[in-house]
Design goal:
With 282 residues, the protein is of the alpha/beta class. It is built from eleven helices and eight strands. Strand 5, helix 6 and strand 6 form a beta-alpha-beta unit. Helix 1 crosses helix 2 and helix 5 runs parallel beside helix 6. It is globular and about 50 Å long. The model has no long low-confidence stretch (mean pLDDT 96).
Length: 282
Protein backbone atom coordinates (compact mmCIF):
# COMPACT_ATOMS: atom_id res chain seq x y z
CA UNK A 1 0.00 0.00 0.00
CA UNK A 2 1.32 3.45 -0.93
CA UNK A 3 1.32 6.33 1.56
CA UNK A 4 0.55 9.81 0.26
CA UNK A 5 0.08 13.13 2.00
CA UNK A 6 -1.99 16.24 1.32
CA UNK A 7 -0.71 19.76 0.95
CA UNK A 8 -1.92 21.99 3.81
CA UNK A 9 -3.67 24.20 1.24
CA UNK A 10 -6.88 24.14 3.29
CA UNK A 11 -5.14 25.22 6.50
CA UNK A 12 -6.18 28.84 7.05
CA UNK A 13 -2.79 30.45 7.66
CA UNK A 14 -0.68 28.36 5.28
CA UNK A 15 1.64 30.60 3.25
CA UNK A 16 2.89 30.09 -0.28
CA UNK A 17 6.39 29.45 1.05
CA UNK A 18 5.06 26.77 3.39
CA UNK A 19 3.18 25.03 0.57
CA UNK A 20 6.29 24.96 -1.63
CA UNK A 21 8.47 23.73 1.25
CA UNK A 22 5.87 21.08 2.06
CA UNK A 23 5.81 19.87 -1.57
CA UNK A 24 9.59 19.54 -1.72
CA UNK A 25 9.77 17.78 1.65
CA UNK A 26 6.96 15.35 0.76
CA UNK A 27 8.92 14.25 -2.31
CA UNK A 28 12.20 14.05 -0.40
CA UNK A 29 10.61 11.82 2.24
CA UNK A 30 9.31 9.42 -0.42
CA UNK A 31 5.55 9.88 -0.14
CA UNK A 32 3.67 8.55 -3.16
CA UNK A 33 1.22 11.40 -3.79
CA UNK A 34 0.76 15.04 -2.90
CA UNK A 35 -2.96 15.83 -2.89
CA UNK A 36 -5.28 18.79 -2.27
CA UNK A 37 -8.82 18.97 -0.98
CA UNK A 38 -11.31 21.54 -2.27
CA UNK A 39 -13.61 24.07 -0.69
CA UNK A 40 -14.42 27.37 -2.37
CA UNK A 41 -16.03 29.26 0.51
CA UNK A 42 -13.07 28.93 2.84
CA UNK A 43 -9.81 30.89 3.29
CA UNK A 44 -7.43 28.45 1.61
CA UNK A 45 -5.42 28.13 -1.59
CA UNK A 46 -7.28 27.09 -4.74
CA UNK A 47 -6.44 23.41 -5.43
CA UNK A 48 -5.25 23.56 -9.05
CA UNK A 49 -3.17 26.67 -8.35
CA UNK A 50 -1.56 24.88 -5.39
CA UNK A 51 -0.78 21.82 -7.53
CA UNK A 52 0.71 23.97 -10.28
CA UNK A 53 3.09 25.45 -7.69
CA UNK A 54 3.91 21.95 -6.46
CA UNK A 55 4.53 20.74 -10.00
CA UNK A 56 7.15 23.44 -10.48
CA UNK A 57 9.27 22.32 -7.50
CA UNK A 58 8.91 18.52 -7.68
CA UNK A 59 9.89 15.84 -10.19
CA UNK A 60 8.60 12.44 -9.07
CA UNK A 61 5.72 12.63 -6.60
CA UNK A 62 2.19 12.28 -8.03
CA UNK A 63 -0.13 15.28 -7.76
CA UNK A 64 -3.85 14.85 -7.14
CA UNK A 65 -7.09 16.61 -6.36
CA UNK A 66 -8.78 14.46 -3.74
CA UNK A 67 -11.26 15.75 -4.41
CA UNK A 68 -12.18 18.70 -6.61
CA UNK A 69 -15.80 19.88 -6.28
CA UNK A 70 -15.94 20.08 -10.05
CA UNK A 71 -19.67 20.53 -10.68
CA UNK A 72 -19.68 24.04 -9.17
CA UNK A 73 -17.17 25.08 -11.87
CA UNK A 74 -19.52 25.95 -14.69
CA UNK A 75 -16.84 26.76 -17.31
CA UNK A 76 -15.87 23.25 -18.37
CA UNK A 77 -13.57 24.46 -21.16
CA UNK A 78 -11.57 26.47 -18.64
CA UNK A 79 -11.44 23.51 -16.24
CA UNK A 80 -10.24 21.28 -19.09
CA UNK A 81 -7.42 23.69 -19.82
CA UNK A 82 -6.48 24.07 -16.15
CA UNK A 83 -6.35 20.33 -15.51
CA UNK A 84 -4.53 19.62 -18.78
CA UNK A 85 -2.03 22.32 -17.87
CA UNK A 86 -1.28 20.71 -14.51
CA UNK A 87 -0.85 17.38 -16.31
CA UNK A 88 1.56 18.97 -18.77
CA UNK A 89 3.50 20.98 -16.16
CA UNK A 90 3.96 17.85 -14.04
CA UNK A 91 4.96 15.68 -17.03
CA UNK A 92 2.04 13.31 -16.58
CA UNK A 93 1.93 13.07 -12.77
CA UNK A 94 -1.59 14.45 -12.26
CA UNK A 95 -4.65 12.58 -10.97
CA UNK A 96 -8.03 14.31 -11.14
CA UNK A 97 -10.24 13.30 -8.24
CA UNK A 98 -13.77 14.73 -8.32
CA UNK A 99 -16.98 14.63 -6.29
CA UNK A 100 -20.33 16.38 -6.22
CA UNK A 101 -19.76 17.83 -2.75
CA UNK A 102 -22.18 18.40 0.11
CA UNK A 103 -21.93 22.17 0.80
CA UNK A 104 -24.53 24.41 -0.87
CA UNK A 105 -22.43 27.53 -0.19
CA UNK A 106 -19.78 26.51 -2.74
CA UNK A 107 -22.48 26.30 -5.38
CA UNK A 108 -24.23 29.50 -4.32
CA UNK A 109 -20.93 31.39 -4.58
CA UNK A 110 -20.54 30.38 -8.24
CA UNK A 111 -24.22 30.70 -9.17
CA UNK A 112 -24.53 27.03 -10.09
CA UNK A 113 -27.35 24.68 -9.13
CA UNK A 114 -26.90 22.43 -6.11
CA UNK A 115 -29.68 19.88 -6.46
CA UNK A 116 -28.75 18.70 -9.95
CA UNK A 117 -25.00 18.65 -9.27
CA UNK A 118 -24.66 14.88 -9.75
CA UNK A 119 -26.12 14.98 -13.25
CA UNK A 120 -23.94 17.93 -14.19
CA UNK A 121 -20.85 16.17 -12.82
CA UNK A 122 -21.58 13.19 -15.09
CA UNK A 123 -21.86 15.51 -18.08
CA UNK A 124 -18.72 17.39 -17.05
CA UNK A 125 -16.62 14.22 -16.95
CA UNK A 126 -17.70 13.29 -20.46
CA UNK A 127 -16.96 16.78 -21.75
CA UNK A 128 -13.60 16.99 -20.00
CA UNK A 129 -12.35 13.81 -21.62
CA UNK A 130 -13.57 14.96 -25.03
CA UNK A 131 -11.79 18.31 -24.66
CA UNK A 132 -8.59 16.64 -23.47
CA UNK A 133 -8.71 14.40 -26.53
CA UNK A 134 -9.38 17.20 -29.00
CA UNK A 135 -6.47 19.27 -27.78
CA UNK A 136 -7.72 22.37 -29.63
CA UNK A 137 -7.88 24.51 -26.49
CA UNK A 138 -5.79 22.47 -24.04
CA UNK A 139 -2.10 21.54 -23.96
CA UNK A 140 -1.39 18.37 -26.00
CA UNK A 141 -1.82 15.32 -23.77
CA UNK A 142 -1.72 12.49 -26.29
CA UNK A 143 -2.33 9.23 -24.44
CA UNK A 144 -1.40 10.76 -21.08
CA UNK A 145 -4.81 11.92 -19.94
CA UNK A 146 -5.06 12.35 -16.17
CA UNK A 147 -6.21 9.40 -14.11
CA UNK A 148 -9.74 10.03 -12.83
CA UNK A 149 -10.94 9.13 -9.34
CA UNK A 150 -14.51 9.70 -8.15
CA UNK A 151 -15.43 10.34 -4.53
CA UNK A 152 -18.75 10.54 -2.73
CA UNK A 153 -20.79 8.47 -0.31
CA UNK A 154 -23.79 7.65 -2.53
CA UNK A 155 -24.47 4.71 -4.80
CA UNK A 156 -24.66 7.20 -7.68
CA UNK A 157 -21.05 8.17 -6.99
CA UNK A 158 -19.98 4.55 -7.49
CA UNK A 159 -21.92 4.34 -10.74
CA UNK A 160 -20.19 7.57 -11.82
CA UNK A 161 -16.83 5.97 -11.00
CA UNK A 162 -17.63 2.85 -13.03
CA UNK A 163 -18.83 4.87 -16.03
CA UNK A 164 -16.21 7.58 -16.13
CA UNK A 165 -13.35 6.86 -13.74
CA UNK A 166 -10.42 4.67 -12.83
CA UNK A 167 -11.14 4.32 -9.13
CA UNK A 168 -12.62 5.92 -6.04
CA UNK A 169 -11.64 8.03 -3.03
CA UNK A 170 -13.11 7.06 0.35
CA UNK A 171 -13.12 9.22 3.49
CA UNK A 172 -13.59 7.21 6.66
CA UNK A 173 -12.00 4.68 9.02
CA UNK A 174 -10.76 1.26 7.82
CA UNK A 175 -14.03 -0.52 8.58
CA UNK A 176 -16.08 1.93 6.52
CA UNK A 177 -13.43 1.81 3.80
CA UNK A 178 -13.67 -2.00 3.58
CA UNK A 179 -17.44 -1.85 3.08
CA UNK A 180 -17.16 0.88 0.46
CA UNK A 181 -14.41 -1.04 -1.34
CA UNK A 182 -16.69 -4.08 -1.65
CA UNK A 183 -19.50 -1.93 -3.00
CA UNK A 184 -17.14 -0.25 -5.47
CA UNK A 185 -15.98 -3.60 -6.82
CA UNK A 186 -19.56 -4.81 -7.24
CA UNK A 187 -20.62 -1.72 -9.18
CA UNK A 188 -17.41 -1.83 -11.25
CA UNK A 189 -18.12 -5.41 -12.29
CA UNK A 190 -21.83 -4.75 -12.92
CA UNK A 191 -20.84 -2.08 -15.45
CA UNK A 192 -18.62 -4.46 -17.37
CA UNK A 193 -15.28 -3.08 -16.19
CA UNK A 194 -12.40 -5.53 -16.05
CA UNK A 195 -10.08 -6.01 -13.09
CA UNK A 196 -10.63 -3.75 -10.08
CA UNK A 197 -10.95 -0.03 -9.45
CA UNK A 198 -8.13 1.85 -7.77
CA UNK A 199 -9.03 2.32 -4.10
CA UNK A 200 -7.75 5.39 -2.27
CA UNK A 201 -8.47 6.28 1.37
CA UNK A 202 -8.15 9.64 3.09
CA UNK A 203 -7.99 10.57 6.75
CA UNK A 204 -6.70 13.47 8.86
CA UNK A 205 -3.57 13.44 11.00
CA UNK A 206 -1.55 15.62 13.36
CA UNK A 207 1.54 14.57 15.31
CA UNK A 208 3.74 16.05 18.02
CA UNK A 209 3.08 17.79 21.32
CA UNK A 210 0.18 19.86 19.97
CA UNK A 211 -1.39 17.12 17.89
CA UNK A 212 -4.78 16.98 19.60
CA UNK A 213 -5.05 20.76 19.79
CA UNK A 214 -4.07 21.19 16.13
CA UNK A 215 -6.66 18.62 15.05
CA UNK A 216 -9.41 20.11 17.21
CA UNK A 217 -8.77 23.72 16.20
CA UNK A 218 -8.51 23.09 12.47
CA UNK A 219 -11.24 20.49 12.02
CA UNK A 220 -13.76 22.21 14.32
CA UNK A 221 -13.47 25.32 12.17
CA UNK A 222 -13.32 23.58 8.79
CA UNK A 223 -16.37 21.39 9.53
CA UNK A 224 -18.33 23.99 11.48
CA UNK A 225 -20.98 23.84 8.73
CA UNK A 226 -21.71 20.26 9.87
CA UNK A 227 -22.80 21.36 13.35
CA UNK A 228 -22.43 18.66 16.02
CA UNK A 229 -21.20 16.20 13.37
CA UNK A 230 -17.93 18.15 13.20
CA UNK A 231 -16.84 16.35 16.36
CA UNK A 232 -16.77 13.09 14.40
CA UNK A 233 -13.96 14.45 12.24
CA UNK A 234 -12.08 15.72 15.29
CA UNK A 235 -12.37 12.35 17.01
CA UNK A 236 -11.33 10.50 13.86
CA UNK A 237 -8.07 12.36 13.36
CA UNK A 238 -4.92 10.29 13.92
CA UNK A 239 -2.97 12.12 16.63
CA UNK A 240 -0.57 9.48 17.98
CA UNK A 241 2.04 7.27 16.35
CA UNK A 242 0.21 4.13 17.46
CA UNK A 243 -3.12 5.32 16.09
CA UNK A 244 -1.42 6.06 12.80
CA UNK A 245 0.25 2.64 12.61
CA UNK A 246 -3.00 0.88 13.52
CA UNK A 247 -4.81 2.80 10.79
CA UNK A 248 -2.17 1.94 8.19
CA UNK A 249 -2.54 -1.74 9.00
CA UNK A 250 -6.33 -1.50 8.99
CA UNK A 251 -6.46 0.13 5.56
CA UNK A 252 -3.98 -2.37 4.18
CA UNK A 253 -6.11 -5.28 5.37
CA UNK A 254 -9.16 -3.61 3.82
CA UNK A 255 -7.56 -3.68 0.37
CA UNK A 256 -6.54 -0.05 0.13
CA UNK A 257 -4.14 0.81 -2.71
CA UNK A 258 -3.10 4.18 -1.31
CA UNK A 259 -3.69 5.98 1.99
CA UNK A 260 -3.47 9.78 1.81
CA UNK A 261 -3.00 11.60 5.12
CA UNK A 262 -4.38 15.14 5.36
CA UNK A 263 -2.57 17.53 7.75
CA UNK A 264 -4.27 19.74 10.31
CA UNK A 265 -1.37 22.23 10.41
CA UNK A 266 0.99 23.71 7.84
CA UNK A 267 4.17 23.15 9.86
CA UNK A 268 6.53 21.26 7.56
CA UNK A 269 7.99 19.43 10.56
CA UNK A 270 4.85 17.31 10.49
CA UNK A 271 6.21 15.54 7.42
CA UNK A 272 9.34 14.44 9.26
CA UNK A 273 7.28 13.07 12.15
CA UNK A 274 4.94 11.30 9.73
CA UNK A 275 7.77 9.84 7.65
CA UNK A 276 9.54 8.54 10.76
CA UNK A 277 6.33 6.83 11.90
CA UNK A 278 5.53 5.13 8.59
CA UNK A 279 9.14 4.66 7.40
CA UNK A 280 8.56 0.95 6.70
CA UNK A 281 5.88 1.91 4.18
CA UNK A 282 7.88 4.48 2.21
Amino acid sequence: MDIGVALPAAVEDASGRELVAWARAAEDHGFSTLSVIDRLVWPGTEPLVALAAAAAVTERIRLATQVLIAACRSDVALLAKQTASVQQLSHGRFTLGVAAGVRPDDYAATGTGFHDRGKRLDELLVTLQRLWGEGSSTPPLGARRPEILVGGRSHAALVRMARHGDGTVVVGPPGAFAQRAREAQEVWTEHGRQGRPRLVAQTYFALGDRARDDAREHLSAYYAFAGPHAQRFVDGALTTEQALLDAVEGYRRAGCDELVLIPCTSQVEQLGLLAATVKEEL
